[in-house]
Amino acid sequence: MTRRGWTLFAAMCVLWGVPYLMIKVAVAEVSVPVVVFARTAAGALLLLPFAVRSGGLAAARARWRPLLLFAALEILGPWALLSDAERTLSSSMTGLLIAAVPIAGVLIGRLAGDAERLGPARWAGLLVGLGGVALLAAPHLGGGSARAFGEVLLVVLGYATAPIVMARRLQDVPSVALSTVCLAVGALVYAVPAALTRPAAAPSGKALAALAGLGVLCTAVAFLVFFELLREAGTSRAMVFTYVNPAVAVAGGVLLLDEPLDAGILASFALILAGSVLATLRGRAAPAAQGTAYPGTDGQRTVSTTDSSSASQEWSTPRGHTT
């Protein structure tokens, strides 16, 4: 990979590793609808010029039904659920749980008719990764934590399912247009709830900075950097950064928010990471799998022939989820 590719890769490790930290800071002072609205509105406004230039808005409009479903699974539900869960859970723990998306993606792909065979290593990865999730969740399943864990697991399911909708119904919609329209839909949906729950007093500078960071850096800039990384390195190499994001989330929470880091968390992280890597190893595809979707890292799904995918397919396929 080129020096530019490594720079983009490093940027993505940070840009989609720190949202959990910023969400934790923001929800301490503003409501969940305000967090989601601020992020989606800022992201949509900043991406709109790029979407117009790409000429993909017409394609997005023509696919409005699956686009709304994709937006619900990728943004409308997950971003609100994540924000509400982080009122109870630490940002580092939330980031670790979201690392299970590749595992859920493999399971949901099988239920959705994915023809790719799962060998012993991938089945072992599923079991190891699920064991890591259980180890992380088990000590916290009482009271409000149980609800918060449930919310994050719903996010995992949404993030793992949304790419199936994208791969099967939205492949002809350019990535930047798809992202922009989904963010705009999110802003419209949360505008009224945000207005009704706006804080009586102005939030602190720290909370405002977190909201700005979520909308500008972790959404608009992150999408643009990610699309450039796809073009520079291709899907397979580009998506490796999703294995680094949980480590960034944990480091941010521990260093900046004084969140705990114990042996259980480290063991869970190792199990989830190992399980995700094993579960998403490229297996042998059945003959009927040509032209179908397969699960990749972090819920990513790309259109695949038996052994390779074209550069245009890599460019048109966005990340499986945003955080």
UniProtKB/TrEMBL annotation:
SUPFAM superfamilies: Multidrug resistance efflux transporter EmrE. Coiled coil: none annotated. InterPro entries: AA-Vitamin_Transporters, EamA_dom, EmrE-like. It is a multi-pass membrane protein. Residues 289-323 are annotated as: Disordered. Residues 299-323 have a biased composition (Polar residues). Keywords: Membrane, Transmembrane, Transmembrane helix. It comes from the Bacteria. Residues 5-136, 152-280 form the EamA domain. The chain crosses the membrane at residues 7-28, 34-52, 64-81, 93-111, 123-142, 148-167, 176-196, 208-227, 239-257, 263-281. It is found in: Membrane. Belongs to the EamA transporter family. This is DMT family transporter. It comes from Actinomadura parmotrematis.
